[in-house]
Write a sequence for this structure.
């Protein structure tokens, strides 16, 4: 979905390096999410933010931090990258103002493929 | 959230309708049925959702049985670009959590 963009699309880094993945959206949604996907494990929620001042840990937040710089921007940082953080990372958004059922329909970005050596 | 059961894989001929079944026999009254798909290594794409009535949009139709224990996603005229993993997800409408199971790998063949 072109309304949700992620940069970079691909990244190779070394163990111990700090890296940041960025997500921007033009959908005007207030809620944003970061997921990772590993082969055979489906999507797992890392962090989510319901607005600029409301950030919450997901099921696998250890080793990650986030920053919600504005309603449209949500960044994910790996403070000290390790090889088992090699994965596909997806950002998603949803609209709290939508009606029930529509409210938590999530729209995903194209993903960032991260390789930690 | 109620669990869902989907076939592991299915094939479909290009130009024909693809009917993807999903069982959710333990669904609760306030749980919606959502469908997403993921084309290889791309971001998951929302397709459609419904509560109890049948729904249609530009991508697909969703048929929910009267007892709501199962549903079918219909892609009316499958194309090669519809080859993807399709996920049926049941969740409460206000719940932000989105859990993807194994899904159905759909292969559209020319």
């Amino acid at each position: 979905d072109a309304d949700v963009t992620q940069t970079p699309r691909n990244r190779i880094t070394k163990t111990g390096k700090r890296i940041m993945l960025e997500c921007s959206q033009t959908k005007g949604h207030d809620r944003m999410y970061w997921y990772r996907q590993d082969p055979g494990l489906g999507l797992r929620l890392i962090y989510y933010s319901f607005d600029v001042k409301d950030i919450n840990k997901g099921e696998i937040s250890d080793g990650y931090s986030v920053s919600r710089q504005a309603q449209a921007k949500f960044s994910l940082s790996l403070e000290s990258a390790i090889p088992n953080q090699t994965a596909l990372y997806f950002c998603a958004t949803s609209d709290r103002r939508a009606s029930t059922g529509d409210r938590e329909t999530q729209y995903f970005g194209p993903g960032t493929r991260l390789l930690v050596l | 959230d109620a669990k869902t059961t989907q076939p592991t894989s299915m094939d479909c001929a290009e130009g024909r309708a693809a009917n993807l079944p999903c069982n959710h026999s333990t669904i609760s009254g306030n749980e919606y049925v959502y469908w997403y798909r993921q084309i290889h290594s791309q971001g998951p794409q929302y397709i459609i959702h419904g509560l109890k009535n049948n729904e249609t949009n530009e991508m697909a139709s969703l048929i929910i049985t009267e007892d709501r224990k199962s549903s079918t996603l219909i892609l009316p005229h499958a194309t090669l670009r519809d080859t993807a993993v399709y996920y049926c997800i049941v969740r409460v409408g206000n719940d932000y959590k989105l859990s993807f199971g194994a899904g159905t790998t759909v292969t559209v063949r020319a």
